[in-house]
Structure prediction request, 752 residues.
Amino acid sequence: MAFAHRHLLGIAGLTPPEITALLDLAEEAVEISRQVEKKKVTLKGRTQINLFFEASTRTQSSFELAGKRLGADVMNMAVRNSSVSKGETLLDTAMTLSAMNPDILVVRHAAAGAPQLLARKVGCSVINAGDGAHEHPTQALLDALTIRRHKKRLDNLVVAICGDILHSRVARSNILLLTAMGAEVRLIAPTTLLPANVEAMGVKCYRNMKEGLADADVVMMLRLQLERMSGAFVPSSREYFHFYGLDEEKLKQAKDDAIVMHPGPMNRGIEIDSSVADSGRSVIHEQVEMGVAVRMAVIETLAKNSFEFGPVETE
Amino acid sequence: MIMPERQQAAFALTNLHLIDPSAGLDEKGAILVEDGKIKAIGANVAGQLPEDILRVDGGGKIAAPGLVDMHVTTGEPGAEHRETLRSASHAAAAGGVTTMACMPDTDPVIDDIALVDFIKRRARDTARVHVKPYAAMTRGLEGKEMTEIGLMLEAGAVALSNGRKAITNAQIMRRVMTYANDFGALIVHHPEDPDLVGNGVMNLGETSTRLGLPGIPSEAETIMVARDTRLAQLTGCRYHAGQISCAESLDIIRRAKDKGLDVTCGVSINHLTLNENDIGLYRTFYKMSPPLRTEDERLAMIEGVADGTIDVIVSAHDPQDVDTKRHPFAECADGAVGLETMLSASMRLVHDNQLSMTQVIKALSTTPASLLGLDAGSLKPGMPADIIIFDPDLPWVMRRDMLKSRSKNTAFHKSKLSGKVLQTYVDGQQVYHYDPS
Prediction:
């Protein structure tokens, strides 16, 4: 089969042909989503459960729409994270849901590795919708689709990822995907927001934003959580914007046709200037559209695969 | 094999390869046990035995002093569903451990003479190996107020510990060391700075970056080891770093020893045989404190044992149940059980020619016994007959359902191991024998 995985837990482990196949399928989904009649019947009778231990309006509605457009029955479960027994809630809820025989389980959790833990316990395909600072594979796929539609390729592009890399699952998944596809990935951040030995993932790190942006084809900004400012990792939002906020002046270093991306939600005036965010170079809204398409492609691929894999062996 | 059902007044273990680091013994021979003590040992013993004495043929396997494990956590009191002194002692006997020093971080904390006495009584009534309780250095392990160190030592505490919590306040550590030194007590500290650990859950580096898990720098350990050795110099106390995991810590300990300070250190069997890659995709049984480090650090630990910088190998036995381990990696508890696999896992180092058999037995038995001032770790005549007989080559596959521990959180599930304890004696009484069926 073209995509030899039961789950999508991360970009790690995917081959370039598998990534390309998902992106190609997503292109078709874009066309469907732009029609008046947006619904397929591929997943008729299948059940998809969105299990979100962390609140996320965008990702959850994107997965919901993707499932519905494929004809699946979609149920949303928002599980409040009790600080006392997070893990207990996780496994207990998962086992309960598993007993309802879903075909696809979409999971977001604040702890890295939570989808891996679930995948070993439930009898259906698991899609990682973001786990701690580990991975957010569908975000990387939608970013790649957006880039490919603008640049017609992924290899030999210079992609600068800027911001809080340390706490970002989006950055990790993007690094894995883009380096696998042959792009040059640069990280721009103060060292307090860079993970240890991240160069080992095949990237170059820059502390000077202008140098990092030089001749970039793609500028990917990351959200800086408010609690990371005020002295813990950077001294203040003012200082952060001065050195690492994307404004027109700094963007001049990138190529003239460079696109600007952001996984959202944006902090205007902290990591990105409104004039850039709303400019013609920003593809931020297109990313949202590609999000639905990519998730349709992933759900459809895994649902088809489940026939070939047979029943899941749980531990 | 014929086994004495009850304690025999006298019996002989014959046809053995005797290894006793305390006597420099490494030869074929026999051991005569009488009234729970070793009466005679050596190549000539077999020929001089009384005719009617019960003889147990050792089949040419190794006989060594029973192991002395300086770092065992049980769940008694407070978490008996994880481990009791009784269940831990059964695990110990199966692993060849005849003396376990039990950590004070129970619930309640062993910070009072009544609790030291409680452990001793429970051990006497329920345990089949020797149990030596540590006393907490500070009340509630909070690192603030000194406990009644002298009274607890008098009540039978074997040494002082602050459990898995380091004392961060250097002034308090200094006072505890100064005061404890008046009693000649050994301080066994867990040198890991909680502030530098922060929310870290594994070794800091490429692997933690790829897994998206917060990392723990080795400096969390080295800064604490450096501080402690300086304080040991200032106070003159007997200091033992319970578990180290980094090559840099070795340098610090080596320098302290070169200066003539009374400083020693230990390493867990986990840090000698596993590294951070074993975590794989978030396997929580490999989450421990200190964290598993890189392969280079692991090799440095083995060298540390080989050159004598590391004095002691411990199991770091820490039973954790489903309620504390079946969580996402960052949210689950530290620790793995180890009493039953410590010797077998150590044999990997012998088979790989990284350590000699004598070096391993010394670090597992003779040295910890002498640091804790125990009548153990030796097969010399007159010593209690705490003896193990083991086959260093017997191949077996570890499965967690084989464990006698109440908790099954082993880091060696499905591991191929060579080396198995066949018989364990405590005070001349057989407390374990291997049943292959």
